[in-house]
Model the fold of this input.
Amino acid sequence: MSNTESAQLPLWVQDREEVIAEDAAVEWRSGRPDYSYTNQFLQQERQCNHAEGSLNAIAHNLVRTFEMEATHKVNPQQWLSVVTDKFRMSTNGGKQYTAQDVIEAGTYNLFLGDTEHYRSTEESFDSSYNLFHTAFPEGFHWELIEVVSPPPNVVFKWRHWGQFKGNFKGFAPTGETIEIIGLSIARVTEDLKIESVEHFFDNSAFLNKLTASGCPFHS
Done:
């Protein structure tokens, strides 16, 4: 696809950096996000390079834009990737959350819930964000593997991974790559905004890997 054709796509399904650049009057949580450091590791370690303009590339960009907005934009009315008033998100068939819920609690908390090794009800947005960014200092990357069903109900497989190089709740880092494979179903509008998204993955397997080093150490 040519640059002209790419520019004709809605901004929210173009590269995430293009969305960030269009930041006039955006209410950022802690200033405009800078992904330049983690992007280095993403490019080195990603497994999929989708053809520009393909459905895989469009869906990949849309989810990355959503993740950026959910993390960094504190006014849901400024999210470009979703239909704000209709948007709902759930994990593994659980409770449906609104955009405002995502802003207040953070995606980590809403994805993981309360488990043996992580209790989202005891974490804030900031504490969860800091916890996982400490555990994965080079980034906990995401990429779309394959779209298996086209709009309006987009079913896609994805991969989340990172190098466990920092402390997680007192558990020593192992340095290994921790990977999650999941499936999501996103209902989108004709102009490719998300109305709802359901995520399915094994959150217990992910947390078990983070705590596999044994009992927490104490400084």
Q: What stands out?
A: Residues 143 and 219 are 36 Å apart (CA to CA). Confidence is low (pLDDT under 50) at residues 1-5. The chain has one domain: 3-210. The domain at 3-210 is CATH 3.10.450.50 (Nuclear Transport Factor 2; Chain: A,).
